[in-house]
Amino acid sequence: MQWKGRRQSTNVSDQRGSGGGFGGGGMRIPVRAGGGGGIGLLIIMAILWLGFGINPLALLGMDQGGGGGQSQVARGPGPQGTADETDDFVATVLADTEDVWNRRFSDAGETYPEPTLVMFSGSVSSACGQAGAATGPFYCPADQKVYIDLSFFRQLAGQLNSPGDFAQAYVIAHEVGHHVQNVTGILPRTTQMRRQMSQADANAVSVLVELQADCYAGIWAHDTYQAGFLEPGDIDEALNAASQIGDDTLQRRSQGTVVPDSFTHGTSAQRQQWFKRGYESGDMAACDTFEGRL
Q: I need a surface site. Which of 32, 91, 101, 142 has the fewest CB within 10 A?
C-alpha cells in the first residue's frame, strides 16, 4: 500500500503510557478464556470474543459495544508522544477512511461524523468500559471511537499468520465500518434485537453485523484502489487476514472442533466473500447482510 508522505488524520489520540484507569464509570472486563488452549488467551480474547468487531462488553451482557514476508510497519508502538512509522501508517489509513466516507455521505446529502482513533498500550478506559490489550481492536459506539493497542499488529503477522501492511489497514477499515453502522443506525437496532433473543440467535445477528463491516472495509479498499494507492498483493493480504480470523478457522486452531452456534464473526469463507463483495461492487447497497430485514 502506498501510504508514505500522504495526508494523515488529526483524529488520532495517543493514550499510550497513560495507564488506562477506570474513568467515566467504566467497568473492569473479567478475563475469561473463550475456548481451549493452543492459540493462547490473548488471541482467544482478541478474536473469538472480539476479533475485529463487536466490543466484548456486548458479549458479556452489557450491550454497549459495536461489533476484527514481514510488514514494513509491523513494529511495536514507539514511546508516548513520539511518532514512528506505525503511528504515521495508522493516521494515514484513518485519513483514507475519512476521505472515502466523507465523500459517500456527502453524495447522499449527509454529513459524516469522523471517529477518533485511540492508540493505547496495556489498558484503556472507554465509554463502553475498561479494556485491555487482550480485548483486541474494538469500536465503542458510546463515544464513537476506535481503540487499538498497536501490539496487535505483531500478533496479526505472527500468531494469526496475516503479515502485510494492507492486512493491518483492513483491521482499521473494519472498525471504521462499525462506526458507519453506528451513525446510520444499524448498531443501535441490532443491539436492541440481540437483547431480545436467545444466545444462538444473538450470535447469528452479530455475525451479520461483522460481515457487513467486512463489506464496508471492502468498499474502502475499492475507493483506495480507485485513488491509485494500492499495490500488487494488497487485496490478497486483506483476504488472507479475513480467512485467518474466521470463526471456524480460529475454533479449529484453538480447540480442534467447530461450534457454529457460537460463531460471532462468520466463517473464513463468509468474511472473504463479503470483503470481496464490497471491494468489487463499491456499492453500500451490496453490503446488506440483513437482506432488508432492518
A: 32
Retrieve residue 85's grid coordinates: 512509522
- How far is 96 from 114, CA to CA, in rounded Å? 11
Residues 162, 176: Cα–Cα separation, whole Å: 20
Q: What share of the chain is helix, strand, coil (3-state, %, to 5)?
A: 50, 5, 45
Classify 100 in phi/psi space as left (phi over 0), alpha (psi -120 to 50) or beta. Answer: alpha
Q: Which of 146, 284, 270 is nearest to 218 (CA)?
A: 284
| Residue listed under C-alpha cell 466523507 | 102
Interval 137-171: pLDDT, tens: 999 999 999 999 988 888 888 888 899 999 999 99
Give me the pLDDT at residue 206, please. Answer: 95
- For 13, the 3-state DSSP assignment is strand
Amino acid at the residue 93? V
Q: Per residue in 92-145, pLDDT tens?
A: 999 999 999 999 999 999 999 999 999 998 888 899 988 887 888 999 999 999
Residues with Cβ within 8 Å of 3's Cβ and at least 6 positions away in sequence, in order, are 88, 89, 92, 93, 165, 229
The secondary structure of residue 79, as a DSSP letter, is: S
